[in-house]
Design brief:
single chain, 293 residues, mainly beta, six-stranded mixed β-sheet, 0% helix
């Protein structure tokens, strides 16, 4: 968006972490709170009211540091190991990660998360807190375990501090996961079972994932029996030293690569975790992004 600089102009835009809005030709740099979102306005000035930024004259560059990181606070303000806190639709636990029976201990100085009511069928659209009592969300293991939500939207999640996504969506019944492609995976080392045993999911878009720090891909998609297409980009790498993924695609019977390679029970490990190149270079992935609907 640009403006000719002759009179004032008004621009309304919904933005998320990392988005930029190029406007320019201004002289003041300042930080403002914009409807609960932090925006650094570089080389620019103007006025902010509610969800509207009014440009003075000329153009500006707005770097968004966005609706997220989203800071939340528990009523008790505690960061004692084992402290739990319900905020919105999620329960957080300090120095804990979710387990199938509750919580288990972690050594990281941060929080684990899980959806509070896994039996609710309502679509999930609420973003997780990035900081709780000024400590980061670091572990999303089993966050949506056995969730009955019909769809899950994680578009607003900020995951730069997360180091483990193990079994994050295990046995979740959603037919779609919106926004998962934009997860920042650069701190994640363990993604084992992230999408395991999802009975209804048919397409997973991981086009923007950078997996260069992940060492554990074990059972990542295992037993997601309806899964047909996995979109990835060039940064989804699985051939680096130390990376492993046994049973990565086991019993994904309907999975088809982008060049037509169909699931083969003799090849269920990390060797097929690549964009399908057809005969002689078989893979189970499809080049992303998905076609526009």
């Amino acid at each position: 968006m640009t403006y000719d600089g002759t009179t004032s102009d008004t621009i309304t835009k919904t933005m998320k972490y990392g988005d930029t809005l190029d406007l320019s030709e201004f002289s003041v740099t300042y930080l403002s709170d914009f409807s609960g979102r932090n925006y650094v306005i570089q080389s620019g000035k103007g006025s902010i009211s509610g969800s509207v930024f009014t440009v003075g004259a000329g153009t500006a560059t707005i770097i968004v540091d966005p609706a997220y990181p989203k800071k939340c606070y528990c009523a008790n303000g505690s960061t004692t190991a084992g402290t739990t806190c319900d905020i919105g639709i999620y329960t957080y636990a300090y120095k804990r990660k979710a387990s199938t029976s509750g919580w288990t201990t972690i050594t990281d100085n941060g929080w684990g998360i899980k959806v509070t009511d896994a039996n609710s069928t309502a679509p999930i659209t609420e973003a997780a807190c990035v900081y709780i009592n000024d400590k980061p969300l670091v572990n999303t293991m089993l966050a949506f375990y056995k969730s009955k939500a019909t769809s899950i939207d994680v578009s607003g999640w900020y995951t730069k501090n997360v180091n483990q996504t193990t079994y994050m969506f295990r046995e979740a019944e959603a037919i779609e996961i919106k926004g998962i492609s934009d997860f920042d995976m650069t701190s994640v080392t363990n993604a084992g079972g992230t999408f395991a045993s999802m009975p209804n999911i048919q397409v997973i878009d991981l086009t923007n994932w950078d997996t260069s720090h992940i060492t554990n891909f074990n059972a990542m998609f295992r037993a997601s029996s309806s899964l047909r297409t996995i979109y990835v980009g060039s940064s989804f790498v699985t051939n680096l030293s130390g990376q492993g993924g046994t049973n990565m695609f086991e019993t994904c019977n309907n999975l088809v690569g982008g060049a037509g390679t169909t699931y083969n029970a003799d090849y269920v490990g990390i060797s097929r975790a690549k964009i399908d190149g057809g005969a002689g270079n078989e893979g189970y992935f499809t080049q992303g992004p998905p076609p526009s609907s």
